[in-house]
């Protein structure tokens, strides 16, 4: 029953080299999350469908991977259901569980489920895969990781400032140059009010969110098609063409939105956040961008988006404040703010720019060549010494031809090869070869350990 | 649409405290895997059902979680299929994918799929969750982690010695006292031959595997019920009652199995492995146990099992050599040997014995109390300094009552609280309170960093 093995489309295997690179990214993000006092949680891959359904819109419901009930999945399904071939109804009866689609809904569920035990403000991070039955295409997978950090239970804008500071530290450590864009949902509301089209806020933000891609003329065309008056479109133009420093933009906005209470609140919030990150002496590029919208119906305050400066790719991190994360689970009024690092895109950026430190491609530090039983025994003794001192080391398990063993060291990127042959056995030494420079040294075991331990 | 949120039975959420403890275990195991030159891979949560089905027996097929095809899952299902209500047939038509059941089959699939690119011997480790539709009960979950390390492409017994050495290092680092039991499938074959019941090897090993639990009399009763002769049972007794050191047991076995070529091969292999680990100077307790069988049909050479000495619990690690891992995927003749650490049981052991180092319960090192806007700005500046020096620190985001902020530090186990009030702002100092001893110090920012950085 031989079969040509493969994996489901849109999923990936990760080789050791890919894992080293991915771990470098995940570890960097984790370390920063921890430095900022975020605590890790994990939730199950499977959630009840009642938790997931209806949270991502109708399209989202279709993109959930559903798990067939175990045992008799036709229990409760009668012939009429089947004859109708009503997929939604049948799914509801045959499947109780689905794979998590993002980390936000499971987090909201978690907060509500354990509300009695959680200390507020609750700062959590979570790094786990999510699954979506999307059509696979370049850069879009059916299984991918999300890296989320959120604070719930605090309205303070200090949280936003911290998140921006955290973004800066992550990308500084990864050596990726980024532009951080910020906006505020209240400013968007104010803009819609100011141009006399408050009821069209969704259409307006959807359209202006595209300005970088399609230009102002096409944006205006779209706004016209949505029924905005020429007057409204003219009023909007100076906002979209706003130039200058953040301080200048804030002053312009404050002037234009003076008539909107909500809008002015948004301007004040933006000012606090931008001043806050500036006063910390971060030299990251934070830019106020009123066209930034990102899932408008979700965010209620600050909106954040990060783009790589040196690679053409979509946003690599995004987030914002939401005021009703847990309402759908019966716990209204809890405010939260969070960001999500797009690990897969960050991985693409680092690959394109080759930004990995050299240590990432290294597996073990030293390979001991196997010359036979007697030599192997002594090699293993020294390998053990090295490992106890924290130096990764291995002995080639078979007394294969020298060329094969050296080829292994080469292909695995092992920087040192140690040889214990007959003469070394006699003299109690080790011959250490530097695979890069090609130099060889004769060392005592103790000197070898000292040499390789850094 | 408020709903009381919950998670599927048999699955778990992990709180920050649980995650710290679990990470301590996973990180320890990972570090050791790396010191020994194992390289990490990851495979997708979903595999094609064609990869998974038939690999775990009929019972296993039922325990696979199957994923409903997205889109029209009834495509290809005709009315007759439905009318029959043949669950297996319907599942085959409605589901192409399933969740991985263990890490071994995906690893075998990986090795075959990438055989052209892999350097042999290939030493991989993999730490990922697996899913089984088992009936949930205490200590048995539907989602749990496996931590596997395997070498394929090398017949050398040095690999077995390395794995034993690795087990020793993991449990030394975790401070868990263990007994490591070893056996060899060839010895079991030899025993069955020697007592004249070669065809009953499965019944024999299943029965004697239970000797620790049910005693020799019940084992013999079971053997009788399986049709073993009294003579065979009498011949088996001295083997099961074998006492003494490993060397003594090996000599006894060599005497008893002298007539079985396979048996003698097994004795030789055991001797090499046991001598090997002894010669490395490991002081772990490795015990030859001829009753050890563990999934006999799978293993073909060495069998390894680890038990905790101070907690009553099943085996916490196990493994062995298999000679035909990849045959089912059309790649015969590849020998491998590996072990699997039972992370969830190890977690239970560490919890029962309270073996976590103090650092595991610590989240951030220092909390800055928030006295208001002006003080918060200065606090954030110093928090930033600390983080840049690798000290995890946070500022309470709201200027809440002192009692509430101190309560937060307390419940999160934060060891230091820093206060910057009006007088500290004036003098440019920080008041640092040690939450354990209660002592307070007035420090410059630089002295504070030096104090908390260790």
UniProtKB/TrEMBL annotation, chains A, B:
<protein>
    <submittedName>
        <fullName>Histidine--tRNA ligase</fullName>
        <ecNumber>6.1.1.21</ecNumber>
    </submittedName>
</protein>
<keyword id="KW-0436">Ligase</keyword>
């Amino acid at each position: 029953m031989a079969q040509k093995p493969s994996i489901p489309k849109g999923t990936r295997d990760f080789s050791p080299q890919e894992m080293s690179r991915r771990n470098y990214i995940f570890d960097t993000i984790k370390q920063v999350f921890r430095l900022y006092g975020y605590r890790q949680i994990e939730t199950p891959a499977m959630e009840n469908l009642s938790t997931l359904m209806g949270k991502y819109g109708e399209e989202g419901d279709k993109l959930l991977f559903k798990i067939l009930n175990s045992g008799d999945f036709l229990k409760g399904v009668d012939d009429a259901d089947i004859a109708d071939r009503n997929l939604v109804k049948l799914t509801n009866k045959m499947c109780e569980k689905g794979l998590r689609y993002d980390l936000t809904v499971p987090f909201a569920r978690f907060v509500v489920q354990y509300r009695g035990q959680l200390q507020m403000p609750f700062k959590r991070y979570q790094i786990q895969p999510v699954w979506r039955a999307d059509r696979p295409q370049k850069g879009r997978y059916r299984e991918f990781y999300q890296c989320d950090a959120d604070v719930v239970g605090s309205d303070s804008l200090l949280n936003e400032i911290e998140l921006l500071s955290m973004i800066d530290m992550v990308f500084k450590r990864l050596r990726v140059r980024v532009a951080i864009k910020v906006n505020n949902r209240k400013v968007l509301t104010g803009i819609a009010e100011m141009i006399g089209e408050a009821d069209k806020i969704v259409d307006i933000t959807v359209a202006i969110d595209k300005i970088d891609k399609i230009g102002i003329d096409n944006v205006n065309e779209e706004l016209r098609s949505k029924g905005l008056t020429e007057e409204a479109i003219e009023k909007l133009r100076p906002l979209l063409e706003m130039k200058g420093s953040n301080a200048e933009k804030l002053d312009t906005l404050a002037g234009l939105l003076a008539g909107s209470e909500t809008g002015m609140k948004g301007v004040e919030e933006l000012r606090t956040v931008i001043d806050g990150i500036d006063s910390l002496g971060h030299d990251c590029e934070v830019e106020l961008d009123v066209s930034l919208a990102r899932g408008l119906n979700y965010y209620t305050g600050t909106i954040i988006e990060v783009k790589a400066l040196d690679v053409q790719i979509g946003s690599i991190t995004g987030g914002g404040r939401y005021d009703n994360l847990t309402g759908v689970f019966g716990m209204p009024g809890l405010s939260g703010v969070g960001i999500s690092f797009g690990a897969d895109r960050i991985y693409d950026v680092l690959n394109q720019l080759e930004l990995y430190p050299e240590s990432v491609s290294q597996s073990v530090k030293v390979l001991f060549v196997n010359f036979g039983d007697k030599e192997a025994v002594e090699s293993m003794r020294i390998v053990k010494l090295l490992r106890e001192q924290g130096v990764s080391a291995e002995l080639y398990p078979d007394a294969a031809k020298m060329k094969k063993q050296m080829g292994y060291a080469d292909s695995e990127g092992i920087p040192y090869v140690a040889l214990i042959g007959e003469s070394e056995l006699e003299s109690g030494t080790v011959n250490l070869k530097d695979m890069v420079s090609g130099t060889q040294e004769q060392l005592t075991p103790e000197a070898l350990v000292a040499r390789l331990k850094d």
